[in-house]
Amino acid sequence: MSGYNTRVEYRGDAYNVQTQDKGLAAQYIESLIYKSGRLLASKRAFYTAYMNLPDVGERIDRMMEDQHKTILGQIVEGRYD
To answer: Strand (E) positions, 1-81?
Structure first.
């Protein structure tokens, strides 16, 4: 499985965001958002609609990157306070 793992400090708290592709059998990506080691939220995005496209791998990579960056932005906007 491929993915991203980023630690962010915001207002004295440590947030960790893990985003990964759960594989072609599951057909979704998942992001887990932790604050000081405690799971706050999870987000899934399914890519079933892309399965028959020739660039499915590139689309999955882009989805993972976009979802991960969006969540990081939401953290510094205060959405997970």
So the answer is: 3-10, 13-21, 28-35, 38-46
Quote the tokens at residue 30. Answer: 């998942």
| Per-residue confidence band for 81, with pLDDT thresholds at 50, 70 and 90 | confident
CA 79 vs. chain centroid, Å, equals 15
What would you report as the CA-atom Rg of the chain, rounded to the nearest whole angstrom?
13
Both structure tokens of 22: 């759960």
CA distances to 12, 19, 44, 70 from 67, rounded to whole Å, are 24, 8, 9, 5
pTM: 0.92
pLDDT tens profile 42-73: 999 999 999 999 999 999 999 999 999 999 99
